[in-house]
Every structure is written in C-alpha cells, then in structure tokens.
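Review form for a predicted model. The reviewer records the input and the model, then writes brief findings.
Reviewer: anonymous (R2)
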Amino acid sequence: MLLTFLLGFQSPVQVPFAKDIAAFKQADQKSKPALGQVLFIGSSTFTRWTDASDYFPGKPILNRAFGGSTLLDVIRYVDDVVTPYKPSQIVVYCGENDIAGDAKLPAYKVADRFKTLYQLIRKREPKANLVYVSIKPGPARWKFRSKMIAANRWIEEYLATQPNTSFVNIWPVLTNADGSIKGEIFVKDGIHLNASGYQLIAPLIAEKLR
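Model under review:
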C-alpha cells in the first residue's frame, strides 16, 4: 500500500524537448506564422542561427530547429515542427547528434533515420521542396568525420532518387585545402559555427532556396 501511495506521487517522466516544442506553440499563439514559408528544422546548427533571415534577404524564413535534437527527435515532433506551417520549402540540418551521441550507430542507420523523416514529411507535405544540409565536421567531433562522410554519402544518394529535393554539401567550405578543419570558424565548444562559419555556408544554401 505504501509503495502504491508513493508511486502515485512520482513526477511524470519528462519527454525530451517538450519545453522547446511548448515554446514554439506559445510563440505561434502570440503571433501566428504565415503559411508557405521556408522552414528550417533540425538541431542546434540551425537553432543558433538566430539571424538566418539576414543571410537570405527576400526569403521568408521560419526557424523551428531545437538544439541537441537527433533525427529521432525530429521524427517524434514532425507534426509539431512541420505540419502546422504548410511550408513551401523545408531545409533540414540534423544527424550530427545521432553520430556524436552513439558511438555504435553505423552511418547507414543515420541515413535510415533520415529516410524515415523524409517519408513522414513527404506524406504531410507532398509538394514542398526539401533541402538537406550535410552533416558538418567540427574540431570537437573531428574523430567522427569518417562516419559523417559516410552518412552524408548515403543521404545524398537517397535524395538523388527522390523528386523535388536537393543536397547541400557544406563540408568543402568548412575545411582547408589539406582536408583539415577550419577551427577559426567555430565557437569555443568546437561544435557550433560562429558568424564567419555561417557566412561560408549561407551562399550554398541560398542557391537552393526558392
């Protein structure tokens, strides 16, 4: 009886990123976003790009990325971060945390997760153009570079078979001629881009924006 009583007062398990999703919904209630925008989704590389609209003048950008997320997390919340906005175009940056967070996860599994996300998005938004921005290297995660390259290749090959999609390879602009990483374009954590880093990848993404 005592155990039953105590269990009844245990706090519920917190669903990962529930606060982020709640914040999006609260923001939408205060100011409902226009439909048909260019929707950025994924992990912190986009979350931290708070001035993304400045890099793409004339393009209506709506950012619904949440930091720390994996592809599995975006899959979980696809009806919260994609469906309500009826985007004309969807730009995805995600997969880096899948690799960094699970040393045993093979590259093809990362690609499989992306395929699942893509198929869910396509069912909900069959006409929206989709852009995938390649998993980036970084000083703190340089040890994962082989798996990142392989996952990018799997995803690029898959998108080549899908209509109304494109793949943006940002790897070349983030590395030097000798293949080493440009450490100066990252913030102190060695994971996230600084303003100089975003200035390098923005033109590559801009080429795919409609």
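Findings: DSSP finds eleven helices and five strands in the chain.
Further findings: The first helix runs from residue 2 to 7.
Recommendation: see findings above.
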